[in-house]
Every structure is written in structure tokens, then in C-alpha cells.
């Protein structure tokens, strides 16, 4: 005996028979052991399908995301099709609680990363991720796709951080989770430290690497790093852990016992945040920047357009060198690197040093006479026209709407 | 006439993140500036032996610095004990504790002001950019402090808190005092016994090693191939397209009429 499985051609042929009629019919294209199994019993690769799965959408040249380590591309390749299947965890071994910020009642980028990190910890211990949010949040429908198994909504006090921490502490005491994750944003870090001080448990802040076995954070002024097992309380730094990209989770509502009224409430009375005046905001933290380049000659007109758009004015190096705009408005490698949501460039071709200043800008709009400018290639919307003729049209259109 | 507020500034012996040399921490310098803007009498408080770098804080206008010898074993208990002991000011108890956002050179967790506030039983407000005493005060009621907290994207949030309280200062606070070299030379560092009895709490040992810089995730994929292109449109069409695009992105508020 050779030990190899012995083939039975008659049985294989009988297994391929389809339908029952007078004349036997056979589906010979189907492999004998079912889909994807070759005649030797091993899994059969389909190189063409793998190629199609690795293909990154968009772009005129085919580009393959070949599992380049831990990155966005790998996460995207791991989740090829939007599966309709909802993953349910009915009997979790432990709970991992994520307390996102939910600005405007929605999950933002860091919130999704926190849920992704909670997913990593929960999957390793076959536990469930609980999203702890405020009641009355309208848009938590994407909690399931973001990786939440349970949705615990409690009445968080918005205007008193002390009372909020007390409510979160009471909810955590009711849930008794293994890990609690907060975002390392201003509000999230504040809440995490209050909870840590109140419960007396250790807190690992600004975690940069998080796996199921270890968590790493910088310390000693960023010159050393602390390595330990994932702690009970931690805050996650921004853009360190990929958001969850797997199958949709259930996000089943979870009733938490209503926490008792906090005894120390009312010591701090905070009002709603007041947005800054875009005209005087520093360029580095402005959400919407409108910049002028060499294609702009009428700067009074430019300023009126910027004011009409409620934006912060910026400029290229050429314009600042000429003295038409202050040096503080310069965008680029030798000026300010922006962290804006949107950037509108009037008459800027986009030198490499200028494009460096657009590091984290998500949306770019370009108005330029040159179709082949680098700024046009970077922009989501490009208008190939003279900026000096487009600006008055924008000003008039905004004035007509306002009046 | 209201008497001057009695404030304590928590100081840490920091290091410079680039050179690794002893250096003052920026937010603690701003905390000194905030106390000066409030017109407060202030004392610097440091849990640990007198370190030469603490003289730098004196150059920013903090004339009196108290070091709690042996306090580094349990800084929360040592600082809270010193604040409550009444030994810092002859006129009365401490009304305000100011701290930086986080230390630079230690564990750097930013947890200490919260732990001190919890130990004292006082409210804590973090990320403060500006502060002033509340105007109208009823007789008998504890005076209030009007604070302005810095939020992301330049936003500000007003908060009112009753004294005594703990205040954490944000990096964007504009109140940076001038450095005077002669004051730094003339400063005297007072050493006090920390008054801790009993063994310090056992801290779990975490492994430490040299920091390794790791790449961040690239959040927003830059559109390399460009998006919609309008070639030589009429100016009115171009303006309409741009305004509609900005509205779709949510950066431009909808028109006033709708």
C-alpha cells in the first residue's frame, strides 16, 4: 500500500450526476471533492480570482495590494465583499468596553480606531465589544459595521465632566469588563483620567501599539517606551490601530442598570463649545483654508471671497514673498502644514514644497489655468479657468444667496 | 477688596524631549503665567528632592518653591498632604492648584493632577487656556472661577467652577511670562519633609526600552489621479460647481434662506 487515497472513478462520476432522468447527465466541470478541492484532496488555488481580489480600485494602472504588513491595504484586502451576514456573539467569555467621543453623535475616525482596537482584544479572548455611548445619539447605525457587538446607551451628562465620569464608572461597575478603551482625544483623555482617578486603577495613556498580548506607549518625554500586557484602562493614540474592516457585527442593545445620581454633581458647569472665528484662527488648526497663489492679483477681492466662504486665508510662498499676504498665512514646507478638512487653492500650481503643506488635507479644490498642474492632479474638483474671473462669480453667488 | 488668591503650581523636573537635558515643562510655565494673570500669590510645589532645573521656573516669576523630600515615592499623597497641611501660606488655606498637561521625563501619563484632585476632593478642569475670577459673588458663597477650555480646531468652551479647585493648563494658553535670569539666580528652594508615613504603594513594574518610531496609518488616501475637472467653464458655472462641492463636503454652511 502506498498510503495514497485510492480513487474510485465510478463513484466520482456518479457524484457528478445532475438531475434524474431517462438519460444520465453529468457536470464534468465541477471538481470531485466540491468547490475548490482538487482531485488530490488539497485546496486548489485560483490565481485569477486572487489577482482580482488584490486589485485596488481606482487608478488607470492596475495596482495590487499584496499583503504589505499591517496597513490599510491589508485591511481592505481582508474584507473583499460587503458581507450581509451579521456576526453574533451570544455568550461572550468577557467584555471589552469602548467609550468613543461621538462628536455630533457620530463615530469619528479615532472612535472607529478605538472600536477596531477593542475588536482585537475581544477576538483574542472570544469576548464581545460593548460600545458605551450617550442616550439620544441618532446616528449610531454604523456601530455594527464599526465592530460593536453590544450597544450600551446611558444618559451621559454633557455639561458636567465630573458627573459624566461618575456615570461611566457606574456603568463599568455594572458591566465589569476586562478592558476599557478610550480615544486619546481631548474629551476622551479627560474622561479616561477621571475614571482612572475615581476607580484608583492604573491607566495606560496614549497607547501606540496594541495587540492581544502587549501594549506599548511612549514615556520619558518620548525617549523611552513602556511595554506591558494590555491593561484594564487605556487610551489609544490617533492613527495607530486600523479600524475594524470585517463582517458586520450585531450591535445588540444592552440594558445597563440606571446608575445612581452622582453625589458631587454641579461643581463644574461647562457650556457648549464655541467655534473659533475662522478669520483669526491659526492656520495649523483651521478646518477650511482658502489660499491665493500667483494667479491672484486682486487681494481685496480674495479677502472678501474668503470672508464669504467663512474660511481661513492662506497663501503660497510667492505671494508672501511679494508682501501681498502676511508670512503667517504661508502654506507649505517653510510655512504651515495644514490639518484641514478642505483646501481651496486659487491660482496655485502646486510646487512640491507647497503640496507638503497639504499633508493631511482630505479634500482639495483647485482653480487654475493649467490643466497639467500638480494641484489639479491632487484636487477632487478642478476648475481650469482664471482665478481672477472665478472669484467675483463666487462672491456674487454667495451674496445672492445671503440676500 | 478681594484678597489675592492663594495658588499652588505643581512643578516637575522635566527633560527636553530632543536633547534629553533637564528643562522646564512648557505647560507648567503657562500655569505660572495663568496664576499671575489671576493676580494670585503662588508657591511652587515639587514632590522630590530639590533639582537645579526647578530654578528655571523661578525665572518665570515663581519666587517661592517648596520641594517635598522623599515625596517621589508617593507623589499624590505627598502633594495632597502638603496642600491640605496649611504650611504653604501663612494667610490661609490653598484655594487653587495649577498643573501642566503632562510631565515630560517621567511616566508622562497626565494622571497626577486628576489623582491629586480626587485625593483632595476638589473639582478638576483640564485644558484651560484662560481664566478669570467670576464677577458677581454673593456674600458667604465660595468664589467662582470662569475658565475657558481649549478644544480641537481652535474652539473654546466656557466653564465655571467653584473654588477650591484643580486646573490643568493647555499648551495654547497665551500667558507665557518673561524669563528673568536674575530671578532664577536668586530663587531659594525650600525643602520640607513630605510627611508620609507607612510604606509607599507598590507600583507594578513595566518593561522600559528605547523608543522606536513607528509609522502612523495613512488616514485619508490622497487622490493621486485627480477628480472632476471642468475645463474652461463660464465663471458663473464654475462658482456654482465650487459652492455645491463645498456644501457636499460640509465645510460651507447651507444658504441662509433654506
Could you write a compact summary of the structure shown?
Chain A has 403 residues and is an alpha/beta fold.
Q: What is the H/E string of chain B?
A: EHEHEHEHEEEEHEEEH
SS element count, helices of chain A: 11
Number of self-contained structural domains of chain B = 1
> Could you say what the CATH topology of chain B is called?
Rossmann fold
C-alpha termini separation of chain B:
53 Å
How much is the average pLDDT of chain B? 86
- Alpha-beta content class of chain B: alpha/beta
What percent of the residues of chain B sit in helical stretches (DSSP H or I)? 10-25%
Shape of chain A: extended
The CATH superfamily of chain B bears the name HUPs
- Computed structural class of chain A: alpha/beta
Number of domains of chain A: 3
Mean pLDDT of chain A: 85
Q: From the coordinates shown, what is the CATH architecture of chain B?
A: 3-Layer(aba) Sandwich
What's the count of strands of chain A? 20
Low-confidence stretches of chain B: 220-224
Cross-sheet strand order for the largest sheet of chain B: 7-6-5-8-4-1-2-3-9
Number of E-state strands of chain B: 11
The profile of the biggest β sheet of chain A is: 7 strands, parallel
Description:
The complex is a heterodimer of chains A (403) and B (258). The longest helix of chain A is centred in the N-terminal third of the chain and has 16 residues, at 109-124. Chain A has a seven-stranded parallel sheet with strand order 8-12-7-4-5-6-14, sandwiched between helices. Chain A has a five-stranded parallel sheet with strand order 17-16-18-19-20. Chain A folds into three domains: 45-76, no CATH class; 86-253, HUPs (Rossmann fold, 3-Layer(aba) Sandwich), CATH 3.40.50.620; 288-402, Rossmann fold, CATH 3.40.50. Chain A is of the alpha/beta class and 403 residues long. Chain A has helices at 9-15, 47-54, 72-78, 109-124, 161-175, 186-199, 299-308, 317-321, 352-356, 374-378, 387-402, and strands at 17-18, 25-26, 86-87, 95-98, 128-134, 150-154, 179-183, 203-207, 209-210, 215-219, 224-228, 233-236, 248-249, 252-253, 268-270, 288-292, 312-315, 342-346, 363-368, 381-384. Chain B is α/β, with parallel strands linked by helices and 258 residues long. Chain B has one domain: HUPs (Rossmann fold), CATH 3.40.50.620. In chain B, 23% of the residues lie in helices and 25% in strands. Chains A and B meet through helix 6, strand 8, strand 11, strand 15 and strand 19 of A and helix 4, strand 5, strand 7, strand 10 and strand 11 of B. Strand 11 (224-228) of chain A pairs antiparallel with strand 10 of chain B.
Amino acid at each position: 500500500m502506498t498510503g495514497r487515497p485510492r480513487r474510485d472513478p465510478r463513484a466520482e462520476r456518479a457524484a457528478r450526476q445532475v438531475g434524474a432522468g431517462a438519460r444520465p447527465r453529468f457536470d464534468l466541470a465541477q471538481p470531485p471533492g466540491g468547490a475548490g478541492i482538487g482531485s488530490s484532496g488539497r485546496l486548489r488555488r485560483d490565481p485569477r480570482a486572487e489577482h482580482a481580489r488584490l486589485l485596488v480600485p481606482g487608478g488607470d494602472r492596475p495596482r495590487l495590494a499584496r499583503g504589505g504588513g499591517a496597513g490599510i491595504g491589508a485591511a481592505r484586502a481582508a474584507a473583499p465583499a460587503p458581507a450581509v451576514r451579521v456576526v453574533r456573539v451570544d455568550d461572550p467569555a468577557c467584555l471589552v468596553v469602548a467609550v468613543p467621543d461621538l462628536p455630533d453623535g457620530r463615530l469619528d475616525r479615532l472612535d472607529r480606531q478605538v472600536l477596531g482596537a477593542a475588536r482585537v482584544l475581544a477576538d483574542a479572548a472570544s469576548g464581545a465589544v460593548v460600545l458605551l455611548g450617550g442616550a439620544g445619539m441618532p446616528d449610531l447605525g454604523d456601530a455594527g459595521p464599526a465592530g460593536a457587538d453590544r450597544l450600551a446607551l446611558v444618559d451621559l451628562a454633557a455639561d458636567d465632566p465630573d458627573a459624566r465620569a461618575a456615570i461611566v464608572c457606574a456603568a463599568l461597575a455594572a458591566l465589569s469588563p476586562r478592558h476599557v478603551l478610550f480615544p486619546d482625544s481631548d474629551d476622551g483623555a479627560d474622561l479616561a483620567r477621571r475614571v482612572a482617578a475615581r476607580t484608583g486603577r492604573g491607566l495606560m495613556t496614549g497607547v501606540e501599539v496594541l495587540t492581544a498580548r502587549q501594549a506599548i506607549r511612549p514615556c520619558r518625554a518620548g525617549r523611552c517606551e513602556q511595554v506591558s500586557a494590555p491593561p484594564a484602562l487605556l487610551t489609544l493614540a490617533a492613527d495607530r490601530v486600523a479600524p475594524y474592516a470585517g463582517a458586520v457585527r450585531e450591535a445588540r442593545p444592552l440594558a445597563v442598570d440606571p446608575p445612581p445620581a452622582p453625589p458631587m454633581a454641579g461643581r463644574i458647569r461647562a457650556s457648549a463649545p464655541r467655534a473659533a472665528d475662522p478669520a483669526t484662527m491659526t492656520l495649523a488648526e483651521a478646518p477650511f483654508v482658502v489660499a491665493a497663489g500667483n494667479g491672484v492679483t486682486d487681494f481685496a477681492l480674495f479677502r472678501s471671497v474668503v470672508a464669504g466662504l467663512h474660511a481661513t486665508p492662506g497663501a503660497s510662498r510667492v505671494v508672501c514673498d511679494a508682501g501681498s499676504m502676511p508670512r503667517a498665512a504661508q502654506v507649505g514646507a517653510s510655512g504651515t502644514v495644514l490639518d484641514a478638512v478642505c483646501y481651496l487653492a486659487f491660482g496655485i500650481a502646486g510646487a512640491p514644497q507647497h503640496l507638503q503643506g497639504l499633508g493631511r488635507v482630505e479634500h482639495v479644490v483647485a482653480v487654475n489655468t493649467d490643466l497639467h498642474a500638480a494641484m489639479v492632479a491632487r484636487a477632487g474638483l478642478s476648475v481650469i479657468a482664471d482665478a481672477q474671473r472665478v472669484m467675483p462669480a463666487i462672491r456674487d453667488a454667495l451674496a445672492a444667496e445671503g440676500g | 477688596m478681594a484678597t489675592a488668591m492663594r495658588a499652588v503650581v505643581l512643578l516637575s523636573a522635566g527633560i527636553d524631549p530632543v536633547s534629553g537635558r533637564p528643562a522646564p515643562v512648557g505647560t507648567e510655565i503657562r500655569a505660572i503665567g495663568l496664576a499671575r494673570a489671576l493676580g494670585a500669590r503662588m508657591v511652587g510645589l515639587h514632590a522630590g528632592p530639590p533639582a537645579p532645573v526647578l530654578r528655571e521656573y523661578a525665572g518665570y516669576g515663581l519666587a517661592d518653591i517648596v520641594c517635598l523630600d522623599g515625596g517621589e515615592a508617593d507623589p499624590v499623597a505627598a502633594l495632597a498632604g502638603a496642600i491640605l497641611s496649611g504650611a504653604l501660606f501663612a494667610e490661609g488655606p490653598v484655594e487653587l492648584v495649577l498643573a501642566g498637561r503632562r510631565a515630560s521625563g517621567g511616566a508622562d501619563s497626565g494622571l497626577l493632577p486628576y489623582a491629586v484632585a480626587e485625593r483632595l476632593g476638589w473639582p478638576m478642569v483640564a485644558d484651560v487656556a484662560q481664566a478669570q475670577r467670576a464677577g458677581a459673588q454673593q456674600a458667604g458663597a465660595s468664589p467662582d472661577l470662569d475658565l475657558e477650555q481649549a478644544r480641537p480646531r481652535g474652539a473654546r468652551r466656557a466653564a465655571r467652577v467653584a473654588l477650591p479647585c484643580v486646573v490643568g493648563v493647555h499648551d495654547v494658553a497665551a500667558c507665557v511670562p518673561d524669563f528673568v535670569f536674575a530671578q532664577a539666580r536668586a530663587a531659594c528652594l525650600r525643602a520640607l519633609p513630605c510627611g508620609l508615613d507607612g510604606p509607599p504603594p507598590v507600583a507594578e513594574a513595566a518593561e522600559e526600552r528605547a523608543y522606536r518610531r513607528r509609522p502612523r496609518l495613512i488616514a485619508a488616501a490622497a487622490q493621486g489621479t485627480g477628480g472632476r475637472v471642468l475645463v474652461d467653464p463660464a465663471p458663473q458655472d464654475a462658482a456654482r460647481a465650487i459652492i455645491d462641492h463645498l456644501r457636499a463636503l460640509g465645510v460651507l454652511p447651507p444658504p441662509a434662506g433654506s
